[in-house]
Specification:
Elements: H1 4-25, H2 29-42, H3 47-52, E1 56-58, E2 61-63, H4 65-71, H5 75-84, H6 88-98, H7 103-110, H8 113-132, H9 136-143, H10 159-166, H11 169-178, H12 201-207, H13 211-219, H14 235-242, H15 248-261, H16 270-276, H17 280-292, H18 299-306, H19 327-330
Antiparallel strand pairs: 1-2
Helix pairs in contact: 1-2, 4-5, 7-10, 8-9, 10-12, 12-13, 14-15
C-alpha cells in the first residue's frame, strides 16, 4: 500500500511536473523560473532528477523538461533552461538522437528561429570537432534525421535545405549573414548539392515556387540557379513541374525572375519546356522570349509535330483579363538589372 508520506510525496511531485509542463506549454518564463528556484531550494538532492527525467508527455511520447521546451518551440523557456544548466544542449541532443532525429534538422523543419540562433554556434563548434576526429557516424547523427516528421521532406536534405524547403526566410537569411566571413559546414551551405538529387537550396526553392526565397538566395547568397539536377532537369523544368500544384501567379513570378533577372539560359531544352508549360500567359511569355533570341517556335507547332493534336492549355481565371496583354506588359522586372531592391525592404533581425 505504501506509507502516507510516500503517497504525499508522489502527489507533490506530480503537481510540480504538471505546473512545469503548463508553464513550458505557455512559454511562461517568469513562472517557470520561480518554480525552478523553488524546486532547487526544496529538493536540493532531487532537483537534477526532476529537471532531466522524462516526466512530461505528448500522447505516448515522454520528454525531459528542456527537450519538451524545444519540441514545442517554447523559446523563452528553452533560453531559461540553458542559462541555468551547464552542458544542457548535449542533453537535448541526446534526447533527439534517441528519437532518431537531428536537433538541428528538427528546429530547421519547425522554423524555431530563436532556438536556431542560440544553438548555431554550439552546433558549428561540435561539427568541426567531429569532422577533425573523422567521426562520420556522429556527424550524421548531429545533422540528419533518420526520418523527418514531415514525410514530404527527404531525410537526405541538409538542415539548411530543410529550412529553404519549408520557406523559413529568417533562418536562411541569418545563416547567409552568419557565414559571410567564413566557410559554413556543408550542412549549412546554401550552395551544397545533396548526394541524392544533386540539388542545392536554389533548385529546392524552385520546387516550392517560393518567389521570396528565390530572391533571397540569389541576391543575398549569390546562389547558383543555372544548374541541372541528377536527372538532368534544368531550373525552368523543375519550376514548371512544380507549378502544376502551385498558383499561377506564384509560378509566373518565379519564371519571370528566373529569365529576366537571373538570366537563365532559355535556349537549353526550350522545346521540352514549351511542351511542359500549361499556363497560357506563361506560354506566351516564353514564346516571346524565344522570339527575341531569334527562335520562332510555338507550343502549338511543337504539339503538331510531336503529338499531332494540341493538348489542352490550362490557365487560371485570375489571368483571364490579362490574356490579351503581351507578356512584357505583365512583368515589371527591369531587363537591365540583375538585382532588385528586395533585400533593402527585408526586415529580419540577424543579430
Amino acid at each position: 500500500m505504501g506509507c502516507h508520506e510516500c503517497r504525499s510525496q508522489g502527489i507533490e511531485d506530480y503537481s510540480v511536473i504538471k505546473r512545469m509542463q503548463n508553464y513550458i506549454k505557455n512559454d511562461d518564463k517568469e513562472n517557470l523560473e520561480a518554480l525552478l528556484i523553488q524546486i532547487r531550494g526544496d529538493k536540493k538532492n532531487q532537483s537534477q532528477e526532476i529537471f532531466f527525467k522524462k516526466s512530461l508527455n505528448i500522447g505516448q511520447k515522454f520528454f525531459n523538461p528542456p527537450s519538451y521546451a524545444v519540441w514545442i518551440g517554447s523559446t523563452k523557456c528553452f533560453l531559461l533552461f540553458i542559462s541555468i544548466f551547464e552542458d544542457l544542449i548535449s542533453t537535448i541532443e541526446d534526447f533527439f538522437t534517441g528519437e532518431k532525429l537531428s536537433f538541428m534538422s528538427y528546429i530547421c523543419e519547425k522554423g524555431y528561429f530563436e532556438i536556431f540562433k542560440h544553438y548555431l554556434p554550439y552546433y558549428v563548434s561540435k561539427f568541426h570537432k567531429l569532422q577533425e576526429e573523422n567521426s562520420f557516424n556522429l556527424l550524421n547523427q548531429l545533422s540528419f534525421s533518420t526520418k523527418c516528421l514531415n514525410t514530404e521532406i527527404p531525410n537526405y536534405y541538409t538542415p539548411i535545405q530543410i529550412a529553404a524547403s519549408q520557406g523559413y526566410i529568417n533562418i536562411v537569411h541569418y545563416t547567409i549573414n552568419y557565414f559571410s566571413q567564413e566557410n559554413p559546414p556543408y550542412t549549412l551551405n546554401i550552395h551544397h548539392l545533396n548526394n541524392e538529387t544533386w540539388e542545392n537550396c536554389a533548385l529546392i526553392s524552385l520546387k516550392k515556387c517560393n518567389f521570396v526565397m528565390m530572391i533571397l538566395l540569389f541576391e543575398a547568397g549569390e546562389a547558383e540557379f543555372d544548374l541541372a539536377n541528377k536527372e538532368g532537369e534544368t531550373a525552368i523544368e523543375i519550376l514548371t513541374f512544380a507549378s502544376r500544384t502551385k498558383s499561377s501567379l506564384q509560378y509566373l513570378e518565379c519564371l519571370m525572375y528566373l529569365i529576366d533577372v537571373i538570366k537563365i539560359d532559355i535556349m537549353q531544352k526550350h522545346e521540352e519546356i514549351l511542351l511542359q508549360l500549361e499556363n497560357r500567359v506563361a506560354i506566351k511569355y516564353f514564346e516571346e522570349k524565344l522570339k527575341n533570341l531569334g527562335i520562332f517556335v510555338t507550343k502549338e507547332n511543337l504539339e503538331n509535330v510531336y503529338y499531332k493534336k494540341p493538348s489542352k492549355v490550362l490557365f487560371s481565371s485570375e489571368f483571364m483579363e490579362q490574356e490579351t496583354q503581351s507578356p512584357s506588359e505583365i512583368s515589371e522586372i527591369p531587363e537591365e538589372s540583375n538585382r532588385t531592391d528586395f533585400l533593402g525592404s527585408l526586415s529580419i533581425t540577424c543579430e
